[in-house]
């Protein structure tokens, strides 16, 4: 047999094996069970918050877009103690703790208080925030949180979290497009960006999922560095302050156009309160109470048109009225804490607080949430 013929036979066999491997991968979808496994909590300490990293090498973290893996590596996956009152905190980057260390987040600040209820149970908060402004993302996370026996859900939102025009175009949500489609069939949410493009057959092959597999592996490999440093988020030496000189108009800042039924006013039907209702009802069916929170924002009292970069006054004021109306109609427990933090304590955006202000706000929040249960 000539060398060239032997080479061709080797190449054909390699191609056949590659095709067979991809077919087997396509049929088995092993990432679905691999994402339920993690070295965190087994060989190394669990993460205090979901991994999200703009600079993976410096922060010993990689952005993971599979929610099952987020939970598998999180502290909430540990068995619940007999004397524990477990509080799951949902929300955006303000809850996650952008520009804060893991021990400076709202959940960490609450845990540092070492609160006990009248019945003796210890209050333990869990940071289930993720840095995107979308309540659909929160709902996806909430559905998995029930597997970890929460006693209370604190769900923090803001006006920008409720825009029907800006709910779905995020990697974390696109990675769960089949689940979103199932939920849309069940609830028929107001989602301007639905339907999402279907997943192609190539995306279900090993070649199409090689990046997800690499991210899973990198996430596990960062565990020793996390265990030794407890560093998961790079804090820059200089933080650009949030804008104070606001644009001279009263338009809503959104990625896509926010469609209103009446110009100059936000009504309940204009926002995704339907997603909040689905989440609250689902929690109630599990026997878990939910507290909805309108989180603090930066407020420029001198500007007659806008509170901040995101919100003109007319939009935010009518949103607060709409939220209160829906909360009363649905009998929700709702805390409007939009002005609960001093305006000079915001850092790079209209939502992120300094470490000291974040802890002060967290203590106020948990004491309001548990006011009838604390001694």
UniProtKB/TrEMBL annotation:
The keyword Membrane belongs to this UniProt entry's keyword annotation: yes
Organism: Candidatus Thermofonsia Clade 1 bacterium
Transmembrane parts of this sequence: 7-28
Protein name: SGNH/GDSL hydrolase family protein
SUPFAM superfamilies with a match to the protein in the record: SGNH hydrolase
Record keywords: Membrane, Transmembrane, Transmembrane helix
